[in-house]
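User: My collaborator sent over this chain with a note saying "see what the structure looks like." That's all I know about it. Can you take a look?
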Amino acid sequence: MSRKPYPTPLVVPPLSEEHTHTIISLHGRGSNAERFGNELLASTDLQGRLPTVKFVFPTARKRRSTILKKIPIHQWYDNYSLEDPGQRTDLQVEGLCQTAEFIRGLVTEEVRILGEENHSKIILWGLSQGCAAGIFTLLGGWADASEAYPLGAFIGMSGWLPFEQQLREILRSDEGLVSARENQHEMQSGDDSCEESESDQESEADAYSQQGSDDNLLEESDPPRDDFNPFKEIEEDSTPRDDFNPFEEDEEEAPLVVQAINHIRDILTLPMIPSNTQLSEDSYPPSLSHLHTPVFLGHGLEDPKVSAGLGKKMYRMLSDGLGMDVAWKEYHGLGHWYRVEDEIEDILSFLQDRVDLPVISGSSLEKGKGQEKQL
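Assistant: Without extra context I'll predict from the sequence alone. Here is the result:
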């Protein structure tokens, strides 16, 4: 497996002398930490609103993009299609595995700085492919499952869930997912319609636009090859394997949630959670405690790059399938980006509510700036 280093992250210290939380934010495909991080902070004034927060913006290393004729671009992993992210999953495994290891390292470093067992002070945030790579890393958990801790929160914008179809099959659902928890947290869709940011839309748009034109060149007679198929049927007379098999039926079959998480851990080359892990109705055991991380997912209904339907599938998988605390919000008139007036405000409210993060109100911030100008 290639081990090219990841570029040094962009680190923005808190405005306050006090450092209470860290946000690790992942850019989308084709962008980088400087472009995405500086634009996000400038357009949202997150530093002013979250003065005790340290921001860490990592950059994905360059990988050759199969759909873009092997052109090297900054991407967390190589994915073949955004209309159907389940195509060519064999291309995704290496990047997801390496990126997850990289992100876990960033989290470990911030825990060291904030103090042991302070995972709840760390928020993982991602846009588009950064959301996809981030949520997959979160679901995989930690290398040592016995010492797992939930993060403070996960924030996803305009994203999707890698291997969603395979996870749905593991949870044995056709029309809907098997409900893992009765209580679901769903926010009502916003009705505000504002103009989308006229920024560079984090140059990821160019890569997606090129992908869309290249997709039209694929011929039906030459279907994409998918070597990585964890659901290939095993012949009845074949020799039993010791590998993880989510569909193996035996007396010690693991709970469906454990099977789903073990499938992700298998992809990320992490040790398996024991099949005899017991689940209770109102809580997960320590090995699955990372599933207690609250999640916010926002998506523009006019997103031309990643359909809101993919985001909603992710929401249903996390909420109904894995029983996580997930807030889902759709935004009318919004494309493949974010909007400060509603989405960012919703995210800040979510963080204040779920993470007990000190948030300065926009009005207070403007009032303070006005007073400074008078002086």
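A starting point for your reply to your collaborator: Confidence is low (pLDDT under 50) at residues 174-179, 181-242, 246-251, 367-375.
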